[in-house]
Amino acid sequence: MQVVGPELQEQGRRLRELGDDPFARRHPRRGEAHELDPPVVGVQLADDEAARLEAVDDARDVRCVAEPVLRQLPHRLGLTIAQVEQGADGPIRDALARRDGVEAPRLHAQEQAQKGPPDGGRVCILPHGHHPSRFIDLNQRLTALKYSANVDGMSEPAITLEGVGKRFGNVVALDGIDLAVPAGTVFGLLGPNGAGKTTAVRILTTLLRPDEGRATVLGHDVVREPHVVRSRIGLAGQYAAVDENLTGRENLRLIGKLTHLTVTAVRQRADELLEVFGLADAATRTAKTYSGGMRRRLDLAAALVHRPPVLFLDEPTTGLDPASRNDLWHVIEELVASGTTLLLTTQYLEEADRLADRLAVIDHGRVIAEGTSAELKARLGGTVIELGFHDAVLAARVAPTLGAGAHVEGASVEVTVDGGPRAVAGILRQLDGDGIEATTLTVREPSLDDVFLSLTGHKATSDELEGADA
Amino acid sequence: MTTTVLPAADLRQRSRVGWIVADALAVTQRNLIAYVRIPQALFFSTLQPIMFVLLFRYAFGGAIPISGTAYVNYLLPGIFAQAVTFGSVNTAIGLADDASKGLIDRFRSLPMAPSAVLAGRTLADLCRNVFVVLLMTAVGYLVGFRVQTNVAGYVAGFLLVLGFSYALSWGAAVLAMGAENGETASLMLFPIIFPFTFASSAFVPTASMPGWLQAFANNQPVTQVINAVRALMLGGPTADKVLHAVLWIVGMLVVLAPLAVRRYRNRVS
Prior knowledge:
heterodimer, A: 470 residues, alpha+beta, Rossmann fold, Alpha-Beta Plaits, 22% strand, elongated, B: 269 residues, mainly alpha, 10 helices, disordered N terminus
């Protein structure tokens, strides 16, 4: 487990030694939370690290611990975790519930208690955006602040698949998949039709039982505790699963009732989501009259009615026109900024590139590559050079002379090279020497399309046109 | 936009049984809204039993000898059963369409009672059948049908038909959970519905059938329910017939409802 604890402790210690830390505020007054934005974040440490963490006793230390970490962390943070004195999380949670109408879950508090909490303290999680000064304000003694960061392997994964396999008759849909999605991050499952993406999502959303292996959501086994899992997840699928005969508002209210919200919450939540998703004007129209993009937005809104901390989107934009797709991406981006863990499947590399923190490429039910989009692109080497020729025959003749990384696309040839501009010059000199003239020259970064091609031997986008027409 | 945590105060507390009922009613309401909003669907589905009334009353009826009462009186209890039997196709189509549109997947991913989707559909169709049977009674009266016992007899027969329709809906649900879409569901259901409806006492006395068919016709649920309804509405000994009908209804419900819910929970696609 990668831990940033020691640096933090060091930083905190040094700032304390300085004594008159300009940030020091023993008892911030109400309303000062905004001044301290962006929210202070702690770092979750491995158990042994946490045990060594010095007890610190006021707001200054909280800030000292958090400040340097903030800069290192990715922009999407799921939760702020405060470790408070034994038993003190109760009043804090109550006070926050009264003040903000939001309850801090006790999830990790329980897990921590089983492991034996460090310093005899308890851990309490606050939704992202809740400034710790809010508890200081409540005169609680804060001993440390932690954060479950979405840095590699640091946080408890929100979603796991361990050796998950699934067959349908003789067809192997999933062939022993392992994945872990850290809380608060966006994970993209990328692959062509039939690769197993949807099967993985269906297993994680309790719609399908795995034949082998284990899958969990927020630590809950999808087979043994399906009901708990269902209360924590939202699912929006390939087909906008809305009732055409109900209005937008009725659709959301139905989901609200079925997710067991109170009557007041059902109404509030439906109207709030209609507003957020730009459907307020269409709230009283039946979904039958909605455009494709509006239906998708309603479908996504329906998945969010009960504010699930983990969201699954199965090809959310398949079949949408570019403008609607862009709209939906915006909505999804806002959503994940608020800390939701998202697992997204897509055939669109652009979509994965734009939305996902990490990606897994799957083909024939296996993970064939995993990493950030940049990492996957880096595997390909530096630069893609695209050369256009007069005709396909010429292109086909030239390609083999440009090395193993070259492949023909109609009348053009794409070559992936390591050396950047120098390599471009080399290729041009070579063509010149052979007396061949290229009509166009494009130099670009490798796209995920290139990655996909090199990993699977076929383009991910071969189905894309069909998908868009459907 | 805050999405991460739901205030606990927004969650409603109920007992397990309370949720089973509440979830089913929420889905029932949703299905009834569709019936109200597309009255054409309801209109056209009542057209067919009306055609049956008219055809058998005026076209075939004259050739079917019935002892003890007018053919139209004999016919109507048969029509009630035929209407709800054919009507069970609506249950199957509704559920299979929900499945093909991904709605069943959505419902299955929610923390709701697993029986609710099926219970909500069958309850909505029960409401629909109340309307259909009342309408058929009215049409029957227009063409000469008269209850020959009393109001209590009619009401008891009416309830029996509805109970039977409810049990049939669950049977349709069992089938629908294996169907790809509404169209396949109705194609799967009709080959079952036809022999049960026509090889019964609905339109002709079973005594006119060959022996082997009589053995089936006399002992299958559609006939048993119709015979009980006839006894209740037209007179004659009722106790045994009603008991048989009720046993069929209860038996079907006990077997079919859990089976349908099981198939719903274990759906693959």
